[in-house]
Design brief:
Elements (H helix, E strand, L loop, with lengths): L38 E3 L2 E5 L5 H4 L2 H6 L1 E2 L1 H12 L14 E3 L25 E8 L2 E10 L6 E4 L13 E7 L11 E9 H6 L7 E5 L7 H5 L4 E3 L6 E6 L12 E6 L1 E2 L9 E4 L10 E4 L7 E4 L10 E4 L4 H12 L1
Parallel strand pairs: 3-6
Antiparallel strand pairs: 1-2, 2-9, 4-11, 5-6, 5-8, 6-7, 7-10, 8-9, 9-10, 12-13, 12-16, 14-15, 15-18, 16-17
């Protein structure tokens, strides 16, 4: 039985030096995923997806048995601790905002389980993908974009950091207990900051996926899309969402956390912020919204926590580097 862990929970002590003592996660590095070789433009790594049949692959059984993606964050930290860090560019820039996109269709009602802490939100969902022959699960969110088909998630949910890009990447908005009320959307391209794909730098643990159309419609036409904001002030109040799958959760319904962000005191080099939260693995990549609801601007994602009983969730600062990855995905 797999020991339940929170995101990036191989950090068993609370010092940067502990990174060097981490044991390997026990899995070999995945072979490069099929498709075109990743391209790197202006600090962004992009991968074109050519495999098909992703939606059909994800049966209810495979979705329920998928491994929470926190183990991939663990491996990225392991690699980063034992390799030369990628130079971090200056995170400078004026605040930048992209407004939300409303769905063009009437949203369907989804009845939550009696014990669900959140009613499903149509633009937030679960992300399923494979790496190294294993099936994984994370969380994601439809974000406003020129192509009306972009999903945000954690960097470790699109790329090993460093290493291969994911395959069979599929987004299931408003997932609830195995149901896919708005369909299963497959990716046509994956994008991440080069600092993540080349070095696994937790500072930039964010990725974006551009989805194929489904039944002739774009993702945001069906479920809408959140507005996004970059280079915002630090220390804001957030509401974070995700599908935690490790105990005591089962990943079958949406959960949330709310709180004011504070800097990570243990690894300040990550430049991340944390809010009070006990969500576990599987919530990786779930969106952080400025304010107290899912209608605010998205401004980060669930990235990592410390220890199997972590009470704080950390997310990367969305500055100019992550904005560049978003802009590349949104325009592709």
């Amino acid at each position: 039985m797999r020991t339940p862990k929170t995101l990036a929970t191989s950090l068993l002590s609370l010092s940067a030096a502990a990174l060097l003592a981490l044991s390997a996660a026990g899995a070999a590095t995945a072979a490069p995923s099929p498709g075109n070789a990743p391209t790197e433009t202006s600090g962004v790594s992009s991968h074109t997806v050519v495999e098909t049949g992703g939606a059909e692959y994800w049966t209810k059984e495979r979705m329920r048995n998928a491994i929470p993606g926190d183990v991939l964050a663990d491996r990225a930290m392991q690699k980063g601790a034992n390799s030369k860090a990628v130079n971090r560019p200056a995170e400078a820039g004026a605040p930048s905002t992209v407004e939300s996109q409303a769905p063009s269709l009437q949203a369907k009602e989804v009845a939550p389980k009696a014990n669900a802490s959140e009613t499903p939100v149509k633009h937030i969902g679960k992300v399923f993908f494979t790496l190294g022959g294993a099936n994984y699960v994370c969380s994601g969110n439809s974000v406003s974009s020129t192509n009306k088909s972009t999903v945000s998630t954690a960097g470790h949910c699109v790329n090993e950091g460093p290493g291969a890009f994911a395959t069979k990447f599929t987004f299931v908005p408003a997932y609830l207990d195995g149901a896919a009320p708005y369909g299963m959307w497959t990716a046509k391209s994956l994008h991440a900051p080069t600092q993540w794909s080349s070095g696994g730098d937790m500072t930039y643990d964010t990725g974006f996926a551009v989805m194929n159309t489904l039944n002739g419609q774009t993702l945001s036409d069906v479920v809408g899309a959140s507005g996004v904001q970059f280079n915002a002030a630090r220390g804001l109040a957030y509401k974070a969402f995700g599908y935690p799958a490790a105990r005591p959760f089962n990943g079958e319904s949406l959960k949330s956390c709310t709180g004011t962000a504070t800097n990570d005191p243990y690894n300040p080099q990550f430049n991340s912020q944390g809010i009070p939260c006990n969500m576990t693995g599987g919530s990786s990549g779930g969106p952080w919204f400025i304010g107290t609801s899912s209608t605010g601007y998205q401004n980060s994602i669930n990235s990592y926590g410390y220890g199997s009983k972590s009470t704080t969730m950390y997310g990367p600062y969305w500055g100019s580097v992550i904005q560049q990855a978003y802009s590349t995905a949104a325009a592709s």
